[in-house]
Every structure is written in structure tokens, then in C-alpha cells.
């Protein structure tokens, strides 16, 4: 399980057990999925991205109020 954000190097299995970073699967609902994509600056064309169950994002890209 690794983070979807290109310039993020967080990979779950390499994390210390007591890491504060958590991994989240993208919401399957298309509207919420787009909201997530827009809330993180991925730096590439968002229109070509489709939801996948293998897409995860780590908690480093969230603000606390987004949880
Ligand atoms: Zn990340």
C-alpha cells in the first residue's frame, strides 16, 4: 500500500508501527472522489484519473478538518 501522490514516498509497509500516518482509500462516489482529487495538488490532469480500489492517499495530504 503506497500513497497515490506522486511526490510522496510514504509506503505503509515501510512505516514504523507507531507512525502517525494513516492510509485512506479514495471514496468510490464520483463527486467525493473529485473533491479529494481537487483538495490535493497532484500536478497532473485530473480528468484521466479513474477510481481504483488500489488508490490510497496518506494522511499527510489532509488538513485536520477534512477528516
Ligand atoms: Zn502521501
UniProtKB/TrEMBL annotation:
InterPro entries: THAP_Znf, THAP_Znf_sf. It holds the Pfam family THAP. Residues 1-67 form the THAP-type domain. One of its GO terms (molecular function) is zinc ion binding. It comes from the Eukaryota. Keywords: DNA-binding, Metal-binding, Zinc, Zinc-finger. The keyword Zinc applies. The keyword Glycosyltransferase does not apply. This is THAP-type domain-containing protein.
